[in-house]
Amino acid sequence: MSDLFKGYKGRALHVLKNFNVRVWSEAKIKTTRGDFQGIVLPRSETDDDRHIVLKLSTGYNIGIAVDTIQDMQEYGYKEAHYKIPEREFPTSPDKRNVKMLGTGGTIASRLDYRTGAVIPAFSPGELYGAVPELADICNLSTEKLFAVFSENMGPTQYKVLAQAIGEEIKKGTDGIIIGHGTDTMHHTASAISFMVQNPPIPIVMVGSQRSSDRPSSDAALNLIHATTTAAESDIAEVMVCMFGPTSDEYGLLHRGTRVRKMHSSYRSTFRTIGDIPLAMVNREKITPLRQDYNRRRNDRNVTIVPVFEERVSLLYYYPNMHPDIIEAMIDLDYKGIVIAGTGLGHVNKPLYPAIKRAVEKGIVVYMTVQTLWGYVHMFVYDTGRDLMSLGIIPTENMLPEVAYIKLGWALGQTSNLDEVKEIMLTPICDEITEREPYNGYLIYQGGIPEVEEFIKQFHK
Ligand code: ASP
Predict the structure, then answer these.
(1) How many whole angstroms separate alpha carbon 453 and alpha carbon 456?
(2) Is residue 370 one of the residues assigned to a domain?
(3) DSSP helix/strand/coil, 82
(4) Minimum-distance ligand 1 atom for the alpha carbon of 104
(5) Residue 43 has pLDDT above 50, yes or no
(6) Is residue 44 part of a domain?
(7) Which of 103, 149, 205, 263 to mutate to test the pocket of ligand 1 (most atoms within 8 A of CB)?
């Protein structure tokens, strides 16, 4: 079979040949379901042979059932080479040394036309080949720790990552970037915030919502911003660096324990919750939005605490939740439960006996709020008081995922429940704050221009 039809067989191949259309043709396709226009991609090995895969100009791939095709016309041909040329990263003694630790995710991905899927692929030379501006910012070296999508990150990976960060700090690196999938970046950011105590340099997590083969990819800009931050910033904390507003005006630096992915597909998906972000970053400069951060130091002192008790769960309460879920956790020997409760921190009455039994068995139960913004207040309603008398401990304004990670980390250090409580309720890196700024709910979250534009339509 000719290379032009590689991957296509059976009916799909027949249809392509019939209309004189090739793989990599730019084609107009008329179907019983409407007209489409795009590039015919090689077919995935795992797809059936009754569909043609078309890449639309938006970057999305769609499958077109061959039985619906009425006409196809080639109007161009655009063979793509998705192998990024590897180039050796230039170094200069005047630039700071930054290390990028790769864990996977879209930022380290390209489209694999063999399977049709976005696959994690991370190579230092590829990175430089793709974003040459990085060489103007620092001397970058890279190490691939994992190549996974972030749903596959967990305690084992957090510990390896924390240890790798510790080693880099000892070696004298000036800043660290962690390439990571965005889906669970906020879990890893809080795990690293707890496991890497008092770092002397910036530790910047970065990802991208859209893979680099898509025109709207945020990969390059996020990388440039994160590299600038790791090299230049005097903020020696664990941060997430991602798109700020929906345009590419600036990136935001979010503190690792106050950040959350808030949109499944927007590039400006990360938001600081219950606070305002640490800083804005663009190609030229880093603009702090506050002053209460740990400054860069020259010493190499850092404490790595890579521990995690895995029998901890995060329970998202929903109306009519049945107690059997908690009963199951008791029987399965769980050590801790974080509940994301409704409103100020509530669950329904039928759960009370199970919670009581859990606490009596020595399982620690902590309460957070589903609203994300605001504090747990368990003195306001009877429900809260009842739950506290059962032994549930409120966690102020710690985000549910952060409380889950912190509880795993606390129980990894001690099984003395008073000590666990002390660790849980003593703020380490702003996972609990004294107050939430009155304007933090809206301000500097990157969406303001859009909000104003929307409001102006109604309020002239
Ligand atoms: N599913 C991907 C991940 O979290 C999404 C991304 O990287 O943005 O690994």
Answers:
(1) 5
(2) yes
(3) coil
(4) 9
(5) yes
(6) yes
(7) 149
State residue 301 phi and psi, 5-degree precision.
Answer: -80, 130
Residue 12 belongs to what domain range?
3-77
DSSP one-letter string for 399-416: -HHHHHHHHHHHHHH---
Is residue 157 domain-shared with residue 212, that is, in the same domain? yes
Active site residue 183: yes
Residue of 122, 151, 182, 223 best suited for mutating to test ligand 1, as the one with most atoms within 8 Å of CB = 182
Q: Give the total number of structural domains in the chain.
A: 3
Pair (56, 125) in one structural domain: no
What pLDDT is stored for residue 113 in this prediction? 46
Given the residues 174, 183, 218, 275, select the one marked as catalytic.
183
Q: Out of 55, 99, 261, 406, which one is annotated catalytic?
A: 261
Q: Is residue 430 part of a domain?
A: no
Which 8-state DSSP code applies to residue 43? Answer: P
Mean pLDDT is lowest, of 14-23, 157-166, 396-405, for 14-23
Whether 331 is catalytic: no
What confidence tens digit (pLDDT) does each residue in 212-235 have? 666 677 888 999 999 999 999 999
Parallel/antiparallel/unpaired status of strands 238-243 and 251-255:
antiparallel
Neighbours of 30 (CB within 10 A): 14
pLDDT tens readout for residues 173-193: 999 999 999 999 999 999 999
Residues whose CB is less than 8 angstroms from the CB of residue 304 and which lie 6 or more positions away in sequence, other chains included: 162, 163, 165, 166, 195, 196, 197
Is 170 designated active site? no
pLDDT tens-digit series, residues 241-265: 998 877 778 999 999 999 999 999 8
| Residue 449 placed within a domain | no
CB atoms within 10 A of CB 177: 27
Contact by Cβ (8 Å): 154, 83: no
What pLDDT was estimated at residue 210? 79
Q: Give the domain CATH number at 242.
A: 3.40.50.1170
Whether the predicted model's global pTM rises above the 0.90 cut: no
Same domain for 345 and 386?
yes
Model pLDDT, residue 114: 46
